[in-house]
Amino acid sequence: MPESAGREYTLLGADGRRYRSRTPGALGGHRRLKIYGRLDCPAALRALARGGYIAHRVFFADEDTAIAAGYRPCAVCSRAAYRAWHAGLAD
Ligand SMILES: [Zn+2]
């Protein structure tokens, strides 16, 4: 990514607050729905194409951060993580 030299990205931390990062987020999320998923998630891309999602779009460095921030895995693109998260709710 040569065009990213010197670029900064806004990511969401484990405390749910934004911070600047030199590294782009590995996961995308919906700030209002509190769902995170892959950047190429078909459900997220459809929602982005429809519009409305972009205003709530956030990014995370990794899965642990997203979960710590109170987000849950996307059932469409993160099936295994979603099942693990869902099973955890039963505790
Ligand atoms: Zn997804």
UniProtKB/TrEMBL annotation:
It comes from Nocardia aurantiaca. Pfam families: Ada_Zn_binding. Gene3D superfamilies: DNA Methylphosphotriester Repair Domain. The keyword DNA damage does not apply. Residues 29-78 form the Ada DNA repair metal-binding domain. This is Metal-binding protein. It comes from the Bacteria. Keywords: Activator. One of its GO terms (molecular function) is methyltransferase activity. GO terms for biological process: DNA repair; regulation of DNA-templated transcription. InterPro entries: Ada-like_dom_sf, Ada_DNA_repair_Zn-bd.
